[in-house]
Amino acid sequence: MVATLKSKAAGKAAYSIALVLGGVIMMYPVIWLFSNSLKGNADFIDGGLIPNTFVWSNYAKGWSAIPGYTFADFFLNSLVIGVLSVIGTVLSSAVVAYGFARIRFPLRNMWFAILMLTLMLPTQVTLVPQYILFKSFGWVGSNLPLIVPHFVAASPFFVFLIVQFIRGIPKDLDEAAKIDGCSIAGIGVRILLPLCKPALVTTGLFCFIWSWDDFLAQTIYLTDTAEFTVPLALRLFLDNSSEITWGPMFAMSVLGILPSFILFMAAQKYFVEGIATTGLKG
Amino acid sequence: MARISTASKVTARRTAISRPLPEGVWGYILIAPWLVGFLGLTLWPMLQSLYLSFTDYDLLSSPKWVGMANYKDIFFDSGDFRTSIKVTFLYVALGVPLKLTFALMVALLLSRAVWGMPLFRAIFYLPSLIGGSVAIAMVWRDIFGNNGIFNRMLAAFGIRGMDWINDPGTSLYTLVLLAVWQFGSSMVIFLAGLKQIPRELYEAASVDGASRLRTFFNLTIPMLTPLILFNLVMQTIYSFQMFTQAYVITNGGPMNSTLVYALYLFQQAFSFFDMGYASALAWILLAIVAALTGLIFWSSRKWVHYES
Which residue ranges run through the membrane (chain A) (predicted)? Predict the structure, then answer.
């Protein structure tokens, strides 16, 4: 009896140690990023995790490191793209998902199968012709190619996520509303929309973070430094920097992941549930 | 006579307005945004890129029909296609299984509900959220650089490190490691799946005196196979498209050792403006990914266990 208790306690301890150790290893690069942002040059050559002197001025130096601009410009550019993308994605994905999840129309299953197939389509397949298309609109060099597609539910993943969520809502609610004389639009707006809040929040969060980090599209379409987003500015910084500006560069990198970080901390529950929903049958 | 017909027309129109639209029409109104997007930004571009793959096109002059020349060049010329295929397959073949293994192991650890589960779940998931950022790419360069922290840790154990990022023999492995570090989203899906396995099954197994290991292999794994399939397909497709990390950390080097397919395609299209060649590359990628996905689905009949 005592022996089993002892082994149980030992098991619990081993388990906790494994978790903590794993957690430390996982967070190490992130901690390293924060610590690098406060290092002076000497610390980059042979410093450890904790900087010998905390160089807070890295942040001020990095902020105006790119001549003619400050990082405020780049953050504003990223924010405009991010916020408009979120609005477009949430609106269009919600409407489309409602149609697929609740309305019976001819060829519905075929269209939905196609939507699921596009979920697996590599971006590279449409990259070149989309570029040609947007070039013919005269949009290359502006942020329009990064925003407009979001208004036509360009990410099937989000439509799928909301469809899964709506399928989990009992149909009796719609039926009752229908009997009470509620129209299709009314059911969508008054009944399902409020209930879908978790799925819509998840969609908004993911959309923001993904568009914030969508380096490939940004690097193709944004050609003018005045239009640059934070990731592009960081890349520019990296190309122009010697070891002397490492501290300021890492300082700006920290600021660059800060929005994602804060969003994640504030809405962790939504993230986890949102991802989990898509992997399961609704 | 004429007046009567106008009057009847008016009433007819009135009833048409007041009658609610049929459900079928509503369905199409609702999915219209996606339909427009799909036709305009997916289907049409796909067809266009198929056409372009048989042409010579540099964005300046109009496309010139060259038949199979692009495909011939890709397969038989001395370009870097074969290198990039090799690099990409190695990256996917190493990264995806490792990623899923870690995801499953950590999900099992976390599913035995203890203190601080939400905190640890957040810690293990966070890298997946920020892993694609330029910031993390920079940290990676620093950690695995010549006097990076990784080498200094090795030195503490008396092992002599090397320049992991700039050595063609090891550069790709640093990128694989970065991919494995982002096992969070698969982990969260496994975690949700583990929660759904009925407790009675575990109780029955322990009554039967099954060992932990046996329970894991005969109960947990079979119950999770649908999710293993889902994660395997999604992560494979996702890994084939890896771009940002290779572009920022190594830019394909040293000696093309990290020239992943997406980066090679990007260079052909946006450095050399060889849109025809890049389109052909895109269709070859689609064929490869489709074939692999098909293969995984076909094999899944043998190993995925569905509850009937």
Answer: 12-34, 74-100, 112-134, 146-166, 187-212, 244-266
pLDDT score recorded for residue A97: 97
Please give the C-alpha separations between residue A236 and each of A39, A81, A268, B265, in angstroms, as whole numbers: 21, 19, 32, 22
Between chains, do A128 and B282 touch, taking CB under 8 Å as contact? yes
pLDDT digits (tens, 9 = 90+) for A221-235: 999 999 999 999 999
Closest CA to A248 of A237, A262, A233, A260: A237
* The two structure tokens encoding residue B287: 């064929």
Could you tell me the residue ranges of all domains in chain B? 79-303
Nearest to A108 among B27, B133, B134 (CB): B27
Indicate the DSSP class of residue A229: -
Say what the pLDDT of residue A48 is: 75
According to the model, what pLDDT value does residue A83 have?
98
B99-109 b/e with 16+ CB inside 10 Å = b? bbebbbebbbb
Residues 6+ apart with CB under 8 A from B109: A15, A18, A19, A22
Q: Considering only the beta carbons, identify the residue of A95, A123, A278 that sits closest to B30.
A: A95
The identity of residue A32, as a single letter, is W
Least confident interval from A74-83, A126-135, B134-143, B274-283: B134-143
Residue B222 has pLDDT above 80, yes or no: yes
Nearest partner of B34 among A99, A133, A82, judged by Cα? A99
**Chains A and B: how many Cβ contacts under 8 Å?**
255
Asked if A261's CB is within 8 angstroms of B130's CB, the reply is yes
Inform me whether the pLDDT recorded for A3 exceeds 80.
Answer: no
The domain covering B79-303 belongs, at the CATH homologous superfamily level, to MetI-like (1.10.3720.10)
Q: Which token pair is A213?
A: 């980090």
CA–centroid distance for A57 within its chain: 30
Residue B25 one-letter amino acid: V
Helix (H, G, I), strand (E, B) or coil at A180: coil
pLDDT in tens, A76-98: 999 999 999 999 999 999 999 99
Look up the pTM and report it. Answer: 0.91
Closest approach of chain B CAs to the CA of A75, in angstroms?
14
Contact at 8 Å (CB) between B27 and A99? yes
Where are the domains positioned within chain A?
2-59, 68-277
**pLDDT for the residue B1:** 47
Judging by DSSP bridges, how do beta strands B64-65 and B55-56 pair with one another?
A: antiparallel
In the stretch 103-122 of chain A, residues with CB closer than 8 A to chain B read 103-106, 108, 111, 114-115, 118, 120-122
CATH 1.10.3720.10 describes domain A68-277: yes
Q: pLDDT tens digits for B172-191?
A: 999 999 999 999 999 999 99
**Residue type for A110, please?**
M
Quickly state the pLDDT bin for A282 (edges 50, 70, 90): very low
DSSP B276-298: HHHHHHHHHHHHHHHHHHHHHHH
Dihedral-angle region of residue A107 (phi above 0 means left; psi in -120 to 50 means alpha; beta otherwise): left
What's the mean pLDDT in A267-271? 81
